């Protein structure tokens, strides 16, 4: 399987195995990256992509296996050694000091000095300016990191690696934080770098971007290398299947909805944002039992405030929100939950989980009052554990022994599974999901969508809010376009195309059916 | 009038010196990301060893240095607990504050026949000019050399922080240790050295009190100066220069207690001044000041 060791390869990793305790993150993985190519590593959340790259960058030590750079075997025991071997890494969570300037961040750890310890910032700044010009990575060398955009920060990370003489750049999920346009710019930057003889390894689970950027793709699943394929001539469906291990339908399969009684009824709702301005204005929407209503809209059109008002985190300044006829506005979050509302929040790390609590504790965050778990004064730990183990089994939360561990240690997809499992276990009448698939891989997205549809078929009213138009289009039975705090128009699924929706989302009007 | 102003300046400089030294100690530790609430205890142990060595050898400079070293040993313990063992830094700091005065008093009784005060040193740290050289009002400005040392250390710290690789590394480690780690900076080493330096400076601060201001160790020689120094550093936004100036301000409040002592205002009220000022300034500024981001958070490699 592995290619012969040769200087034509920038990086070769042969037979890499890495375990954490009893859990094998990587088993006998081979990776051969040709010089001057863009090589993507595709895999689900938790498949071991990042672990493999962390081994290459010296953050982890492999239990066994060999690494060759330009055909020479090397021992990479820490990031410093990786840097010396011409390997640079741009982490998913940027490693930048907020209060430092761009230049200070770039030179940190390999500063130019006058006489040993005195910083030579003039020389450093010039070196940064030279790099910026050479690769067209426009960024102001004197700006503070906290004042520049995320995509600029990413450029600083790339510059950091180039400043240290990186020949091979590892990008860990570089597009997760970028807008569509910024992604295009990044792909262009990557192509420029390759033209200049650099090699790029990109970790991702977005199939579209692999097609747009890469030459070769290595697929990893549950710590095993599945295949390495040239990207040209491979379809997205094939890649997805290799990644997940079974055929994946990128289009969601579902039957016609059978809507019942109105469950969620929002009438004339107004709510204010942080700046005390009306963010939700005369908002009207009904969601019936057994249907999925999707709210399509561009981020910042009042979706956040709408959800906060429904969840009773901010007051409704006018209008009513009712669940099966019971008004819940301007009460407490608990009141909404008691009426049968479950919410899968937008930010799983801030709103969905207490990261420093165990998975057990997170699983019963809303049920600690339930006499079942809390018979008297103490929590019934046995029941809590049994309940959580049930969720872990049912939702395939990995690793399967995560129960007593910190929720913050789980990968994003598995964190989301914990939340979804917890919310659905409430047996809600109304399930609200906000950006439920953000940052998830194809396999996990499919699970989430299937779960939403399964709940719909059980007769739950489902409200889906997403900034990704494809998701709303695929999953919803009815699509409501939200713009400037209110609903522009509502369509049945299949009666409207992306372009029309895009137009309405941007504030345009549409007169057709 | 001029005389009064010069007296005020002289006393301010005298009382701000222990604060300024300990304050620089607080800055270096906190900026590297380790909360050092144990400054008070480190000052006390420094004050004792400073006097003890100064008194036994007759050499106040040697005493001053040993006061710093005693503080540094405490710094090492604090570093071991908070960096290596990842203990709660506030708790470790409180332990320092309990052990420091306790140990100092114990040793004092041991070496001075059960007395809670040491014998006075024969020679304090000398003043800038030999006595008799200055006349009239100018005499008030004949400050101790420790005051000059404190100023030089503050300037030196400012230079180290903003113009050297060491400073860049210390600040990076306090703001984003993982970033520093991925760039090959040894987070643990930087924090160890910073906390040990912090203890050394706090020890010097304590010794400057008992070798420069008063001339003997007593259990009340250090009474809150460590905490005032920490407050001053917050007020000074965790910078060496801001911290130094804030220490001067707090020294001025202490000077006021001396200046107004014996006036119509009861002495008890006046003595409260530095502490009340500390509380008020903390209430007003602590919320607004932005501490180093990783301050107080133990660094663990590879944690998410």
Care to describe what's here?
The complex is a heterodimer of chains A (513) and B (304). By secondary structure, chain A is of the alpha/beta class. Chain A folds into 3 domains: 9-244, P-loop containing nucleotide triphosphate hydrolases (Rossmann fold); 249-340 and 428-513, P-loop containing nucleotide triphosphate hydrolases (Rossmann fold), CATH 3.40.50.300; 355-422, no CATH class. Chain A contains 17 helices and 22 strands. In chain A, a hairpin with a 2-residue loop joins strand 11 (216-221) and strand 12. Chain A is globular, with a radius of gyration of 25 Å. Chain A starts with 8 loop residues before the first strand and ends in an 8-residue tail after the last helix. Chain B is globular. The model of chain B has no long low-confidence stretch (mean pLDDT 91). Chain B has 304 residues and is mainly α. Chain B has one domain (2-122, 145-285): ABC transporter involved in vitamin B12 uptake, BtuC. Chain B contains 11 helices and no strands. Classes of the chains: A alpha/beta (513), B mainly alpha (304). The A-B interface holds A 54, 57, 59-60, 78-80, 83, 89, 91, 93, 95-100, 104-105, 108-111, 113, 117-119, 160, 408-409 and B 163-166, 168-169, 171-172, 175-176, 178-185, 293, 301-302, 304.
């Amino acid at each position: 399987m592995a290619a012969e060791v040769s200087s034509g390869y920038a990086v070769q990793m042969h037979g890499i195995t890495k375990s954490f305790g009893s859990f094998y993150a990587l088993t006998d993985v081979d990776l051969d990256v040709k010089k001057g190519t863009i090589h993507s590593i595709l895999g689900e959340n938790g498949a071991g992509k990042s672990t493999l790259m962390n081994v290459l960058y010296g953050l982890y030590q492999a239990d066994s296996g060999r690494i060759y750079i330009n055909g020479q075997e090397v021992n990479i025991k820490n990031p410093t050694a990786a840097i010396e071997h011409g390997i640079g890494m741009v982490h998913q969570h940027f490693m930048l000091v907020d209060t430092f300037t761009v230049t200070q961040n770039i030179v940190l750890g390999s500063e130019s000095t006058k006489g040993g310890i005195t910083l030579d910032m003039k020389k450093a700044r010039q070196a940064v300016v030279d790099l910026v010009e050479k690769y067209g990575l426009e960024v102001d060398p004197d700006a503070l990191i906290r004042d520049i955009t995320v995509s600029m920060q990413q450029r600083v990370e790339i510059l950091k690696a180039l400043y240290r003489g990186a020949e091979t750049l590892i990008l860990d999920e570089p597009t997760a934080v970028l807008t569509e346009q910024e992604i295009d710019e990044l792909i262009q930057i990557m192509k420029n770098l390759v033209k200049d003889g650099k090699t790029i390894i990109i970790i991702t689970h977005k199939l579209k971007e692999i097609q747009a950027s890469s030459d070769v793709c290595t697929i990893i699943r549950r710590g095993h290398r599945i295949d390495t394929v040239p990207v040209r001539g491979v379809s997205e469906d094939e890649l997805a299947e290799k990644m997940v291990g079974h055929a994946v339908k990128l289009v969601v399969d579902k039957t016609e909805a059978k809507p019942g009684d109105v469950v969620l009824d929002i009438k004339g709702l107004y709510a204010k944002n942080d700046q005390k301005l009306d963010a939700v204005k005369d908002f009207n929407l009904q969601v019936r039992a057994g249907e999925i209503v999707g709210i399509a809209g561009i981020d910042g059109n009042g979706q956040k405030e709408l959800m906060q008002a429904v969840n009773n985190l901010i007051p409704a300044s006018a209008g009513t929100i009712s669940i099966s006829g019971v008004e819940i506005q301007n009460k407490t979050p608990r009141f909404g939950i008691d009426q049968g509302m479950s919410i899968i929040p937008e930010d799983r790390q801030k709103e969905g989980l207490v990261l420093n609590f165990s998975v057990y504790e997170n699983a019963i965050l809303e049920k600690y009052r339930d006499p079942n778990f809390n018979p008297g004064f103490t929590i019934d730990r046995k029941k809590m554990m049994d309940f959580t183990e049930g969720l872990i089994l049912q939702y395939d939360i990995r690793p399967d022994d995560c129960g007593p561990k910190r929720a913050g240690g789980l990968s994003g997809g598995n964190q989301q599974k914990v939340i979804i499992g917890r919310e659905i276990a409430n047996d809600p009448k109304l399930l609200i999901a906000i950006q439920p698939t953000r940052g998830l891989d194809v396999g996990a997205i499919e699970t989430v969508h299937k779960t939403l549809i399964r709940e719909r078929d059980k007769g739950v009213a489902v409200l889906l809010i997403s900034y990704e138009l494809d998701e709303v289009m695929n999953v919803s039975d009815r699509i409501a376009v939200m713009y400037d705090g209110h609903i522009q128009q509502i369509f049945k699924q299949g009666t409207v195309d992306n372009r029309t929706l895009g137009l309405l989302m941007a504030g345009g009007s549409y007169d057709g059916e | 009038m001029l005389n009064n102003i010069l007296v005020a300046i002289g006393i301010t400089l005298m009382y701000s010196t222990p604060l300024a030294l300990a304050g620089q100690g607080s800055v270096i530790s906190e900026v590297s990301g380790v909360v050092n609430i144990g400054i008070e205890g480190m000052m006390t142990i420094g004050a004792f060893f400073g006097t003890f060595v100064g008194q036994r050898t007759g050499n106040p400079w040697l005493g001053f240095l040993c006061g710093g070293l005693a503080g540094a040993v405490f710094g090492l313990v604090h570093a071991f607990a908070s960096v290596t063992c990842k203990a709660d830094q506030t708790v470790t700091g409180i332990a320092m504050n309990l052990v420091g005065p306790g140990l100092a008093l114990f040793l004092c009784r041991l070496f001075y026949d059960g007395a809670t005060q040491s014998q006075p040193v024969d020679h304090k740290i000398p003043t800038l000019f030999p006595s008799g050289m200055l006349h009239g009002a100018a005499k008030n400005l004949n400050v101790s050399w420790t005051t000059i040392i404190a100023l030089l250390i503050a300037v030196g710290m400012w230079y180290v922080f903003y113009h050297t690789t060491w400073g860049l590394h210390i600040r990076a480690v306090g703001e984003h240790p993982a970033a520093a780690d991925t760039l090959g900076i040894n987070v643990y080493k930087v924090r160890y050295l910073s906390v040990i330096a912090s203890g050394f400076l706090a020890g010097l601060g304590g010794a400057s009190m008992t070798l420069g201001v008063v001339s003997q160790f007593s259990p009340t020689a250090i009474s809150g100066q460590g905490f005032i120094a920490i407050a001053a550093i917050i007020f000074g936004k965790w910078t060496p220069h801001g911290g130094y100036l804030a220490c001067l301000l707090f020294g001025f409040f202490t000077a006021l207690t001396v200046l107004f002592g014996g006036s119509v205002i009861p002495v008890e009220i006046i003595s409260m001044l530095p502490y009340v000022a500390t509380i008020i300034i903390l209430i007003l500024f602590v919320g607004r000041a932005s501490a180093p981001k990783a301050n107080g958070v133990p660094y663990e490699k590879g944690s998410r």
